[in-house]
Design a protein that fits this description.
Belongs to the ferrochelatase family. By secondary structure, the protein is an alpha/beta fold. It is built from eleven helices and eight strands. Helix 3 crosses helix 11 (305-320) and helix 6 (163-177) crosses helix 8.
Amino acid sequence: MSDKLGLVLLNMGGPDSPAAVEPFLYNLFSDRELIRLPGGGLLQKPFAKLISHFRSRHVRLNYQDIGGSSPLRDWTEKQAAGIAVRLSGEVIPYVAMRYWHPFADETLARMKADGVTRAVVLSMYPHYTGATSGSSVNDFRRRAAQLYPELTFSVIEQWYDWPGYLDALAARIREGLAQFHELLRDEVRILFSAHALPQKFIDRGDPYLRQVTATVEGVMQRVAHPHWTIAFQSRSGPVRWMEPDTVDVIRKLGEEGHNALLMVPISFVSDHIETLHEIDIQYRDLAFEVGIQNYRRAPSLNDGADFLAAMAGLVNRHLEGL
């Protein structure tokens, strides 16, 4: 047996060029674990083809605003490499994306060629939901069974309450608060913005909301700032979504006369379209429109040394328990 250990980070992926936007959206809308389009499984792919075609132009413009492509793969690769070098022994880092390259089958082919026969698979979604973590893990398991059944691997599916993660997130919030004038700092409203899910996921028992809430409470025990709330972003389509909507909360804060707002991306550990465009551009413009003139975002975790050390500690604890 090889002494080499593979470390595989799972994430959703993102388009690496303007031409990749439409096929990326098609892959996303084709996933019935994430989105159940009307008509059942038989019509999912035709509907996905139609929706991705019509949405791609607008989404492509959003990507143009942040440089033309998603940085998610680059950040995830840096995270994988940074965690691997903090582990003992020979650890080879990989990433496997759900909706764009490198897909799980590409990653498994590399692992096989590298002679890696055992691995730890780490979901880069801190909070578990069947729509994201579950879909990525299930996809990797299916592909591994088909393409590399000799691979022995274990999975870390959730780590919403890992102390090192909470410490790193608290440090980013302190960095964000430091961007405000000291006379204004106590008045800052902190808005944690997580990706929304259709309410039916929560109603069926998905732990996502409970875990997001636990993360925020753990972080705010460390930060001890009095003014904070949780909201949910990226809602689309005619279904009932988790509430409150981030847009509605920003509008309400403006109507109440608050003038200082710190946005904290809570379900994202890397910069991508939802931080760089939705929070940094769309929500900033909305905040200014409703009278919030002091608008900032806490830095993302990305490849911060404290975050990578925390994740290496998580992997080490997992390996000790095997």
